C-alpha cells in the first residue's frame, strides 16, 4: 500500500498524509452513518478542560465552544466496522507497524460550526499509554479540512523525543484534560496538514499535535482510529486491558499468557 518513501517520511516526521484511501461511495455511507450516530448516540460537551483554553480562545468563544464525541463507532454501525477493517487502510498500517496489527479503539471528533472545539498541543500517549511507539493513530477525514475549520497540525519529528509528562492539574489542584505547556509547545510552530474527504492522516502515538477552532458555518467531521503492534503493552488509559480485533497477521502468545477473556462485567 505504501511506498518506501512514504514509510520513511512517517518515521522521520512523525506523520503521513495518505490521499483517497476511501472512495466517494465509501464516504457517502460513512458520512450518513456518522450523522446518524451524532443524532442517536454521541454526546456534546464543552470539550477538554484546562488553563490552555484561555490561550486558545477569548472569553466569549470559550463559553460557546463545543465538542461532539463518542468512542468505538463500530459497536454501533456496520459501515464503521468495515471502515476500521478497510483493506487499503489495514495494509497501510501493516506497512508502518509490521505484519501483526491490532485495532485498539476509535473516537469521533466533530467540531460544530463557528466555535467548534480546538485541541491544545499534546501526545495521544497521555490518554492511552503504551510501552513503546509501535502505535499509529489514523484520522479519517469526512470533510475537507483547512485553517478555517481546524485542520490537524503537527510538530515535525516530535515523536523522536518519546513520551512526555503532560499537565493534568489546574493551578488550584483540580484535575484537567492532559495537555502540554502552551508556552513551550505552540500551535503556531506546528505544520498544518489539510486533507480532503476520503483522505487519512496518520501519526505516531508520541507525535505532538493540536488543532484550532472551526470558524466556518459547517461542522468538521473526523474519526480517529488507533492501531498497534499487539506486543506493545498498554499501561494506562482508554481501553486498558481490552483486546482488539486483529486486522492483519496474528497475536503471538507471550510466555504463559492466558486465553483472552470473553466474560463481561459481573
Q: What's a concise summary of this model?
A:
Helices cover 21% and strands 28% of the residues.
Primary descriptors:
single chain, 266 residues, Jelly Rolls, 6 helices, 28% strand
Round the mean pLDDT to the nearest integer and report it: 95
- The helix/strand series, from N terminus to C terminus, equals HEHEHHEHHEEEEEEEEEEEEE
CATH topology: Jelly Rolls
Number of strands: 16
For the record, the CATH architecture stands as Sandwich
Residue share in β-strands: 25-35%
Q: CATH superfamily, called what?
A: q2cbj1_9rhob like domain
Rounded to an integer in angstroms, the radius of gyration calculated over CA atoms is 18 Å
Weakly predicted, low-confidence segments: none
Helices, strands, pairings?
Blueprint: H1 4-13, E1 15-18, H2 24-40, E2 43-45, H3 52-56, H4 59-64, E3 67-71, H5 78-84, H6 87-97, E4 101-111, E5 119-122, E6 128-130, E7 135-141, E8 152-154, E9 167-169, E10 175-179, E11 191-192, E12 200-204, E13 209-211, E14 220-228, E15 234-237, E16 246-248
Antiparallel strand pairs: 1-12, 2-3, 3-4, 4-14, 4-16, 5-13, 6-15, 7-12, 7-14, 8-11, 8-13, 9-10
